[in-house]
Every structure is written in structure tokens, then in C-alpha cells.
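Practice problem 4.
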């Protein structure tokens, strides 16, 4: 039975999953669990350009309140004498007080790009703003680890499509929204038949190969996802469900080091405060449940949750009670294993702007290098080509 590539792609969501299935998963020994106390990274992407100034608020800065006379956050929760946090992130305040939250301000890169797509590509690939890469920083991490591990390190994205960040030259992460749905789709009679009738036609042979990988491994991921049921109650939001999926896999013996999630859109050109509050509430409640789950299972010290957004917003509000595309932003780091807690560096300098935009002081690639070297124990210089040092907060 032959099938054209275009026809195959139209038939089922499994085709998408098949393309995203890394070839190396076929060779994994399924009882190869993580080593005790091996670190896990969870990345939460704030898609759309979150407004950092209304996230960590410069409570003593008159410029902030003057430039945002309608949208400035007046009731922030105080973190330091000069900084507060958005009240919708009340659990982040608790984490801060408990020494389980770090904040890095002014993160960005030289010659910033204000296009959502281009800036996200830069963050995903860890490229320069004038450099175009087809691989992501975590995908290259997979490539590097595959050379020295008996079984390649896995990365999973809870989404229907795989992000550039997790695409390597030789290895890719696996993207799926729901383990049970993935498994059920893989068992559809049509796909079983399709796989059983493999042909060597050049135009479709790779489809059969990736389809076979998906069928062979969907059952594995599904079984791991239900291996240890959680007693923790998660919110019914999509992000809550995604974190619950990640938690179930972390608590199993699946060999996964990196999990990737996203929420959005933070593109708040109009009525920003309402939109941001809704998103922050979803994030706050989901993270609260996830951290409680990790703590109750004795795993929190080995989990690092990192957040980022492709850019921040401009300092001044616009005429629609929103903000337009900007540049530098902050990143959050949540873990029971932080070496340095709290606000790690100075707040944005609102007196020193570049045509109304914040000026970055911390290169995001240095943060990636820190996570790769200090948390994932990888060779950051090979993955990133970054040789300018690392931070010491993890």
C-alpha cells in the first residue's frame, strides 16, 4: 500500500507526532530510569512578550508611575524596599519569602528584534540577532548528550507542535499534548495497517520510519504518565493540566531531563492589566500545585522551573491602556536547590533608555550556559559556543 506524503499529512494528528519523534527513542531501554538526584529542567515560556515592568514593579520609581499613569500596578506585594510583585502572582511572593525563587532582571541580547517570530527564534536557538540557526539550544543539548550516554537524554514538550528550542541536528524532543490521546491515536487501525505495509518508495519511506517510532513509543510514554497517580489537586486550566502531565512523568521512572511548556498570549497592546492578570492567575495556581506536588514527593530540590518571554514591553503605556513591543525582561527561577535567592541584580534603569526601551545588562545565553553547566552538567561551550562565564545562582 502506497500513500503520498501530502495525503498522509492530512489524515491524522499522529502524522504531526510522527515528525516530532526522535529516531533515538527507538533504541531506548525502557527500564533506564534517571539516576537518583539527577536534575530536571522545566521551561515555561511566556509567549507573546510579557510586560516585565508590571510583573516585578519598581515601587519607588516615579518614572514608572508617570509613564504608566493608567496601568501602573498600585497594589503590588513588596519583595524589597524598591521592588514588588504583581498581586496575581501571590504564590511567587511565598516562594520568594521561602528562599525558593530567584529573579534576574534586564535579560536580553544585543541589537534586539521586536518581531515576535524572530525574537522567539533567537531565544530558542540562542543565536545572535544577525545569525540564523536551524537548531535549538536544548536540541543541541540532546545532540551533545547522545554522544556520551548509554541511552540518549530525552526531552518532552507538552504541546501539539515541537518548538525550535528542542530541535537538534541529530536528535529532537517529542511533542504531545496528552499521553492518553497520543497512545489512542497510535493504536488506530489505519496506522497499524500503514506501518505493517511498509514500502521503500523514496517519497514516503521516512514517514513509515517515524510512524513506527511513534507507535512503538506512545505506549511507553502513556504507561509512564499513569504509573504514579498524583493526590495533588491541579487547576482545571490548560496550564494546570499540562503541569499535571509533567508531574506524573517526573514521578515515574521515565528517562527525561527536560520538560517544556508554554502559555500566552502576553501580547498586551490593549487593556493590558486585565489580560495579564488572567494569565498570571493561571500561572500562579498551576505552579502552586506543581511545587506542592514536587515537595510532597521529595523532588523539589532536583527541579528547576525557568520562565522566559521573547521580549518585554516599552516603558510608556500606549493610548489603548496597553504596552507595545519592547526589549529586555526578567526571568524567574524556582527550585528547592537554588544557591542564591531573591532578586539577583538591579532593577531596570528607567533613566537610561534606548528610544523608550530598556537596555539589557544580562545576556540570555549566559543564563542558558549556567543552566547547562551547573544544572544539567553539560558542556555549555559545545552546545552554545558561549565562553563568557556563568552565573552562580544554581
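Answer key:
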Amino acid at each position: 500500500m502506497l500513500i503520498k506524503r501530502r495525503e498522509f499529512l492530512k489524515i491524522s494528528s499522529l502524522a504531526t507526532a510522527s515528525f516530532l519523534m526522535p529516531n533515538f527513542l527507538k533504541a531506548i531501554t525502557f527500564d533506564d530510569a534517571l539516576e537518583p538526584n539527577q536534575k530536571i529542567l522545566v521551561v515555561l515560556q511566556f509567549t507573546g512578550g510579557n510586560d516585565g515592568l508590571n510583573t516585578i514593579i519598581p515601587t519607588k520609581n516615579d518614572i514608572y508611575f508617570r509613564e504608566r499613569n493608567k496601568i501602573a500596578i498600585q497594589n503590588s506585594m513588596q519583595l524589597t524596599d524598591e521592588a514588588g510583585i504583581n498581586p496575581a502572582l501571590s504564590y511567587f511572593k511565598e516562594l520568594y519569602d521561602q528562599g525558593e525563587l530567584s529573579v534576574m532582571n534586564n535579560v536580553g541580547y544585543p541589537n534586539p528584534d521586536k518581531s515576535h517570530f524572530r525574537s522567539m527564534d533567537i531565544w530558542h536557538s540562542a543565536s545572535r540577532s544577525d545569525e540564523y540557526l536551524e537548531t535549538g539550544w536544548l536540541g543541541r543539548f540532546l545532540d551533545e548528550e547522545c554522544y556520551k550516554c548509554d541511552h540518549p537524554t530525552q526531552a518532552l514538550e507538552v504541546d501539539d507542535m515541537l518548538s525550535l528550542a528542542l530541535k537538534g541536528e541529530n536528535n529532537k524532543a517529542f511533542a504531545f499534548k496528552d499521553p492518553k490521546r497520543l497512545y489512542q491515536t497510535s493504536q488506530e487501525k489505519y496506522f497499524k495497517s500503514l506501518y505493517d505495509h511498509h514500502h521503500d518508495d523514496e517519497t514516503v519511506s521516512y514517514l513509515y520510519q517515524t510512524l513506527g517510532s511513534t507507535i512503538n513509543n506512545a505506549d511507553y510514554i502513556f504507561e509512564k504518565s499513569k504509573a504514579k497517580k498524583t493526590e495533588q489537586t491541579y487547576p482545571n486550566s490548560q496550564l494546570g493540566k499540562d503541569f499535571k502531565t509533567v508531574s506524573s512523568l517526573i514521578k515515574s521512572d521515565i528517562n527525561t531531563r527536560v520538560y517544556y511548556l508554554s502559555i500566552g498570549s502576553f501580547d498586551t497592546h490593549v487593556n493590558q492589566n486585565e489580560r495579564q492578570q488572567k494569565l498570571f492567575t493561571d500561572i500562579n495556581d498551576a505552579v502552586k500545585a506543581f511545587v506542592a506536588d514536587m515537595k510532597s514527593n521529595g523532588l523539589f530540590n532536583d527541579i528547576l522551573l525557568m520562565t522566559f518571554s521573547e521580549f518585554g514591553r516599552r516603558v510608556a503605556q500606549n493610548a489603548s491602556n496597553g504596552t507595545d513591543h519592547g526589549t529586555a525582561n526578567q526571568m524567574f527561577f524556582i527550585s528547592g536547590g537554588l544557591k542564591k535567592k531573591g532578586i539577583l541584580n538591579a532593577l531596570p534603569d528607567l533613566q537610561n533608555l534606548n528610544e523608550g526601551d530598556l537596555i539589557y545588562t544580562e545576556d540570555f545565553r549566559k543564563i542558558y550556559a549556567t543552566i547547562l553547566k551547573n544544572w544539567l552538567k553539560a558542556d555549555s561551550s559545545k552546545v552554545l559556543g558561549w565562553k563568557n562565564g556563568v552565573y552562580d545562582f544554581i
